[in-house]
Amino acid sequence: MELNNFVYLSMIIVAVSASNNYCIIPEPILKVFTYNFTTLTNLKEPTRDINLSLNRGSIRLQLCRELKEKCNGKDGYSICLKKDKKEIGIGKFPAKVDMKDGRILFVFTGDNCKNDTNYTVKIIMKCDYEVQGDSKPQLIHETFECTLFLIWRTVAACGRRTTQNCTLTDKATGFHYDLSPLTKYAENYLIPLGNKTAPKIILNVCHSVIFEYDALCQMTDGACLQDPNKNRYKSLGDVRKPPYLDNNRNIKLEYEDGAVCKNNKNVINIKTTITFMCDFNAVNTNPEYISGSEECNYQLLWRTAAGCSIEYLKNRTASIPKQSTVKCATQNDEVNLGLIKSTSNYVIKTDKTMFYINVCRPLISNLHTNLKCMFDGSAACKVSLDTSVAENEISLGFPKESPIINDNRETVLRYTDGSNCPENIERLLSSNITFPCYDSDEDSPEFKRYEDCTYVFEWKTRLTCGAVIGNWIAPCIIKEQLLSHECDLTLLQKVFRIKSKQGKEYAISICNSNKELTSKSCNSAICDDNNNNYGSIANVIFDYGRDVIKIQYTNGGKCADESSYTSEVRFICTKSMGIGTPKLLWESECSAVFEWYTNVTCSCNRSTSGSSNSQGSNVAPIISSSSHAGTIAGIILTIVALISAFIYFRNPDKRACFKSCCNLFNSRRGSGRVQYCRVNTTEEARLLLDIDPTQCQTDSDDDLLNA
Ligand SMILES: *[C@@H]1O[C@H](CO)[C@@H](O)[C@H](O)[C@H]1NC(C)=O
Ligand SMILES: *[C@@H]1O[C@H](CO)[C@@H](O)[C@H](O)[C@H]1NC(C)=O
Ligand SMILES: *[C@@H]1O[C@H](CO)[C@@H](O)[C@H](O)[C@H]1NC(C)=O
Ligand SMILES: *[C@@H]1O[C@H](CO)[C@@H](O)[C@H](O)[C@H]1NC(C)=O
Ligand SMILES: *[C@@H]1O[C@H](CO)[C@@H](O)[C@H](O)[C@H]1NC(C)=O
Ligand SMILES: *[C@@H]1O[C@H](CO)[C@@H](O)[C@H](O)[C@H]1NC(C)=O
User: Fold this and answer.
1) Separation of 316 CA from ligand 4 center, angstroms?
2) What is the pLDDT of residue 631?
3) Ligand 2: distance of its center to the CA of 118 in Å?
4) Angle CA(608)–CA(613)–CA(615) in degrees, nearest 5?
């Protein structure tokens, strides 16, 4: 890498012209690879557009081409907003692409919004090696009437990478080590060499540094140095060698062959050495710079559980008590939270805090994220990443109660008897998790607030959307109005035969082909071998709380006692099942209930004519506007905070104030401070806004927030 001693960057702004190929972009800084965004389409259903649901309405989108379906009856759009049953073209094809300092921004302009302003959609493309295949952009905020900001995490926004096996066996002891839990796939470790204006080391572990905005290192660099004025980068070594053990049995990782060493005549190239120290309780820690910049050997020290041998970690975790778990469903199993399955803990990360959460049971101990509160059976845990805080880990409660449905019809799961409450020595911390009904697959909790010795979280899920009456649409589709879910059951149309212990044989043909295929005299989806008709469709019920779809059949042929045959088929989504076969759950003389584990009902969520009104259904509207108002208010506050940060950083004299400004938000917001302060460093904010003074002068496209 001697040639690349310094990479000098000027403001590179590439406005790719309006060609069909604006999605194929040669990377303009290193010039060694090309971005290809053409794969970012609806991979599951290539004939449809990508669909995003918003708080109010939805969006159809294509990044690199026109929409497959017209928008408001017209062609020529790439982004279409649907709100109150009306469609608006908010992004015309093609987009303009801005590449500046490694930030990739797609800008779409749409129809007139108001006065002289047209709709604008800005999509930031963010590298994430772990998002392969299907991906969708996410909303950053939708508070401005005419401008929408999205971020799209995808491997398509990544450059080439260099990786290295991160495991090691100590031949003397036979112990195994694995540093791979420290590898980052969407961001880098940043290690300042001094104060804010000092150079920063940008680092990754056994993987080259993620090439992105504000981290423009070479593709092979495991570490590089960012100059304070930000437009110079220097390689501190390549990812090439696996970790090794030194004489003191410490694990070390070396990145060699960095830029040419200028300070030390005995050394040709700069290198970096990271020493890992086993610390069982050190989770999500950062490496520290020790010394060596003058000698061209940058020495870093990292206290981390990943520096411990796997055998040692296993030993420690083996002592975790086995805790009993509570029943994870509300009364009468109305909402079964047990259906939120987890093989690891849910993690909520803010700037200085990590929350670990599990559902109705203790946190699962992962070999590399061992915390005291994973030993003691806590179901929620808060870890402060700020090492200056004395007690950096607190339990937010134990799973002692089943979830309840409170007077507001909210499903609440409560963990109690955690660590001491700082505001009231007589009380212990607890956490409340509420589960609002939401049509989303990305189920994970969000931290809302801290009050009354209680951490309040919100977890949007389909499980609390209740039981919704749906319709049967011939020939073989079921549909409901609340979440606009629609299932095509055509794959189940063959005749399934089931023998019962009582000797009856049932023929089931959901799409009602029994008439042709079995016997002319039974015209029903369910018949028995005596040609008894088990009814016609009476109800289709989407029971989200139990994750079951039921079809009930009544008014069949005459049975004993003047009654008629009835039956029911329950579909239970099971991804691993394939089509599956129906099983008899129980039968009586005049009725039968079948259970059908199948993957066909797992893909019921996208409906063609998406009316998301709740007309005709027996439940409240999905999205309670009040809870969203809170989110929006939060977002507005963060934007206000960002703009003030931006203004302050324009003026170097005021930069020092920034910390106290942040504190201002702290004291106002009380426990909510994490949310507001962290925004200054979130990826989104960093990408949206340069809050660096040197960059503020060149705000050519920083009209991003010109509200
Ligand atoms: C971009 O990706 C598409 C889909 O994988 C592929 O067909 C096309 O050849 C690629 N184009 C370039 C220039 O790499
Ligand atoms: C803005 O919207 C108007 C009306 O929809 C349209 O005629 C015009 O071309 C748009 N401007 C741009 C720059 O797309
Ligand atoms: C790393 O090397 C070890 C030992 O050679 C091997 O068992 C392991 O599968 C490798 N891991 C990866 C991710 O290649
Ligand atoms: C694991 O625990 C056993 C028993 O306490 C001890 O003998 C052994 O040395 C431990 N192994 C490691 C790797 O710490
Ligand atoms: C937490 O939940 C309990 C039980 O539903 C309720 O009494 C309490 O007010 C809730 N606390 C907060 C801060 O929401
Ligand atoms: C269901 O399973 C079948 C067979 O394993 C598979 O071909 C199909 O893609 C699956 N469908 C869904 C929606 O997962």
Assistant:
1) 9
2) 31
3) 6
4) 115
* Residue with the two structure tokens 């799973």: 399
User: Is residue 44 in contact with ligand 6, taking CB distance under 6 Å?
Assistant: no
pLDDT on residue 78 = 97
- pLDDT number for residue 467: 85
Ligand 5 close to Cβ of residue 456 (< 6 A):
yes
**pLDDT at site 49:** 95
**Would you state the pLDDT for residue 441?**
55
DSSP 672: G
Any idea what DSSP says for residue 411? E
CA of 217 to the centre of ligand 5 (A): 49
Predicted pLDDT of residue 389: 58
How far from 3 is each of 7, 71, 234, 260, 269, CA to CA, in Å? 10, 51, 11, 8, 11
- Compute mean pLDDT per 10 residues along the chain, 707 residues long, and list them: 38 43 92 93 90 84 95 96 92 94 94 92 94 86 76 94 94 92 93 88 96 93 88 93 90 96 90 91 84 94 90 72 72 85 77 87 70 79 74 86 91 92 90 86 79 93 86 87 85 86 86 60 83 87 88 88 89 87 89 92 63 32 27 33 34 29 26 22 44 25 26
Structure tokens at 499: 């023998």
Full 3-state SS string of 638-654: HHHHHHHHHHHHHCHHH
**Which of 77, 40, 48 has the alpha carbon at shortest distance from 607?**
48
Let me know: does 307 contact 277? Beta carbons within 8 Å.
yes
User: Which among 61, 29, 229, 33 is positioned nearest to 137, based on CA atoms?
Assistant: 61
Strand partners, 202: 190, 224
| Residue 75, ligand 5, Cβ within 6 A | no
Q: Which one, of 469, 398, 466, 402, lies nearest residue 436 by Cα?
A: 466
Q: Where are the beta strands (DSSP E) in 23-170?
A: 24-26, 34-36, 50-53, 58-61, 77-83, 86-92, 96-100, 103-114, 117-127, 138-141, 147-154, 167-169
- Could you tell me the distance, in angstroms and rounded to a whole number, from the CA of residue 653 to the centre of ligand 1? 49
CA 211/CA 207 separation, integer angstroms: 11
Measured on CA atoms in the order 690, 695, 696, 698, is the torsion positive or negative? negative
pLDDT of residue 679: 25
pTM: 0.58
Ligand 6 within 6 A of CB of 578 = yes
Ligand 2 in contact with 109 (CB < 6 A)? Answer: yes
- By alpha-carbon position, which residue is closest to atom 2 of ligand 4? 315
CA 546 / ligand 1 centre spacing (Å): 43
Q: Would the CA dihedral through 516, 519, 520, 525 be positive or negative? A: negative
Cis peptide before 475 (omega within 30 of 0): yes
Q: Specify which residues 420 forms β-bridges with.
A: 428
Ligand 4 contact via 500 beta carbon (within 6 Å): no
Q: What is the DSSP letter of 209?
A: P
Is residue 280 lining ligand 4, measured as CB closer than 6 Å? no
CA of 435 to the centre of ligand 5 (A): 13
Which H or E element spans position 673? helix 673-678
Q: In what order do the strands lie in the sheet with 147-154?
A: 14-16, 96-100, 103-114, 117-127, 147-154, 138-141
- Give the list of residues 6+ apart from residue 656 with CB closer than 8 angstroms, or none: none
Could you identify the atom of ligand 3 that is nearest to the CA of residue 167?
1
Residue 296: which of 350, 256, 329 has the closest Cα? 256
Contacts of 377 (CB under 8 A, 6+ apart): 321, 323, 362, 398, 399
